[in-house]
Amino acid sequence: MLLTAHNVHFYQDLMRSLQAAIEADRFDAVAHEWREGLARGDIEAL
């Protein structure tokens, strides 16, 4: 259940950011930032 709550929060945050980016005409920049962050990950590679 905790993982489900985390995933829901993650996608709500993502959609909120993308919606604000579309309204500010910055979608490409924000999407690029998200992709870079996801590619970096949250732990160091082995």
Number of helical segments with 4 or more residues:
2
Summed over residues and divided by their number, the pLDDT gives a mean of: 91
Number of strands: 0
- The radius of gyration is 13 Å
Shape: flat
Main β-sheet: number of strands, strand sense, barrel status? none
Order of helices and strands: HH
Low-confidence stretches: none
Question: What count of domains describes the coordinates?
Answer: 1
Straight-line N-to-C gap? 29 Å
Q: Which range best describes the helical content: under 10%, 10-25%, 25-40%, 40-55%, 55-70% or over 70%?
A: over 70%
Broad structural category: mainly alpha
- How much of the sequence is in beta strands? under 5%
Describe what you observe in this structure:
Helix content is 78%, strand content 0%. It has 46 residues and is mostly helical. The N and C termini lie far apart (29 Å).
List keywords for this structure.
single chain, 46 residues, mainly alpha, flat
What are the SSEs and their pairings?
Layout: H1 2-23, H2 27-40
Summarize the structure.
78% of the residues lie in helices and 0% in strands.
